[in-house]
Amino acid sequence: MENLIRPVIVVGGSVLLTVLIGWATDLLLRKADARHGETPLWGLLRRGRIPYQLVLCAALLRGSYDQAKLLEDHRTGVGQALTLVLIGSVAWLVIRIAAAVVETSYSRYARAHRDPARVRRVRTQVSLIMRVVSAVVGVMAVAAMLLTFPAMRAAGASLLASAGILGIVAGVAAQSTLSNMFAGLQIAFGDMVRIGDTVVVDGEWGTVEEITLTFLTVRTWDERRITMPVSYFTSKPFENWSRGTPQMTGIVYFHVDHTAPVDVMREKLRDILRACPAWDGRACGLDVTDTTPNTMQVRALVTAKDADDIWKVRVTVREQMVRWLAKEHPYALPRVNTADATPPPARLPGQSSSSDGAAARHP
């Protein structure tokens, strides 16, 4: 009877104590979250209640398992399994706590600073720091698990002796991966590109959606995702429309007939921009920039506070200007001449052929 009651008391007591401590801790965190609404730390710490309870249960069972006298023939294996679970759950809990602290620091910084460019930079750095912390904690946890096996401890000296050679081989084999990792750190702390930036890469316009240590994702205007290695942004040129101030200048080109009323078009451009809420009022202009045998190129210059608004201003100006020209000045639209060519002047009596050639050259 004792052989049955003892395991039940030890195992059941450990589980019950874990549940009680976990419930009490979660209750305290909820009260702290309700009392301190200005910080999300206590609410974020509640995300770690599962690994926290797992740590408690594994620690209690590991410490009291010998008293349970359960599966004594497999005592070593069960103890080893509990140790591995304890190490893994501790690593999980550390990552959750670190994530809560980092996210709290970022939220405080975002509330204190109104500059969206600086907030996006810190957000990029925070996300990459969390990935590095998770990777380091994961590697340390795996190493600690391996060192719990006696065979791995015995092989430690030989592993350390060959670490230099293995490092060189791994560096050569993973050259591309390592270069992308260093490029990711360079992007995070070099402020080259940030999450939320508007960029143009290989002719594609989009917004940076995710940055990791090895790749970067750009969401295009038509909801496509372009994934590319981060080393691309450290080795090739690209356009970052969010770099510096978000204000932008846009250009709209029109091809019109040579008889187009440029002065009237200039006044119409001002009227269109005054009625466009996306225009920031900084500058506007309309100039003739080029001519061809059939058309004249007119450039309209507009400004806006950011990349999204400059797109709205450009499409508005293009649509309304073309519509106005077609309605009020249809002769100003490009035309294709289909009339017969003007005949050469009539030959005068007694005019020589050389005169004909001169007349042809100088009409």
Automatic annotation (TrEMBL):
GO terms for biological process: transmembrane transport. Keywords: Membrane, Transmembrane, Transmembrane helix. This is Mechanosensitive ion channel protein. Residues 335-363 are annotated as: Disordered. The chain crosses the membrane at residues 6-29, 77-102, 128-149, 155-174. Its main location: membrane. It is found in: Membrane. Coiled coil: none annotated. Residues 177-243 form the Mechanosensitive ion channel MscS domain. GO terms for cellular component: membrane.
